[in-house]
Specification:
Helix content is 41%, strand content 15%. The chain has eleven helices and eight strands. The protein has helices spanning 3-12, 24-33, 44-47, 59-71, 90-102, 117-125, 141-144, 154-169, 182-191, 212-215, 235-247; strands spanning 16-20, 37-40, 77-81, 107-111, 130-135, 174-178, 196-199, 207-210. An eight-stranded parallel beta barrel has the order 1-2-3-4-5-6-7-8, surrounded by eight helices. Bound molecules: 3-methyl-2-oxobutanoic acid (KIV).
Length: 258
Amino acid sequence: MNIKQLESFKKTGRKITCLTAYDASFANVFDRCGVDIILVGDSLGNVVKGDKNTLGVNMNDMIYHMQAVAKNVSQSLLIADMPYQSYDNAKKALKNAQQLVDAGAQMVKLEGGREHQDIFKILQKYNIAVCGHLGLQPQSIMDMGGYKVQGREKASAQRILEDANMLEDCGIKTIVLECIPASLAKKISKQLSIPTIGIGAGVGCDGQVLVSYDMLGITQNTPKFVRNFLLSGNIESATKDFIQAVKDTTFPADEHSY
Ligand code: KIV
């Protein structure tokens, strides 16, 4: 998978599938099963390190896990999260993004909108592909008052919509929309010419991402938007069922949406 193919999926309406991976073995299963994008997410703070949030993940963690994943993947597009405080300013963002690319990432993901415009521009200038992340931003949960659905009020919905347009104008390749009303995610996805990848954002997004440990039913107290695909058998069949359900739009269903 490359970025051009991602763009072509948006044009043809072919749904995009994405799962997180943090190690070589899981990444290899997802790659073999045909997952379009593997995200080395900073959710590794929760599911690998055992922390309550993603704020304790640092660049060393991300490089270590990115390198492990990259060794065993040949087809899926690889995205690495930029961890908390790794993109406080443009110079720092460029240095850290370059390190993630050197570790094997084809794209880096960072949370936020207009406040990072200078960062998006410098990464674009140095040809580093960027994935945006709007709606619920786990690195800002202290400011957001916890893990809450975003964009329910008119003003915050408008802000997310404007940020999504701004990201597209800055040359961002794709945007993760996390925990926003399905109607808002659908509106954004229709307006943009770059693909949106939803998590808790309804079936109207151009693709879907899940934390793999949630998809496999390993984590407890999962959010409403998660479906346990492992109930269907083993890890390979769960992965294939996830891919099929995203492509035929049976996942996410209304019960997984806000
Ligand atoms: O870190 C992560 O796993 C993510 C997904 C929730 C999109 O950012």
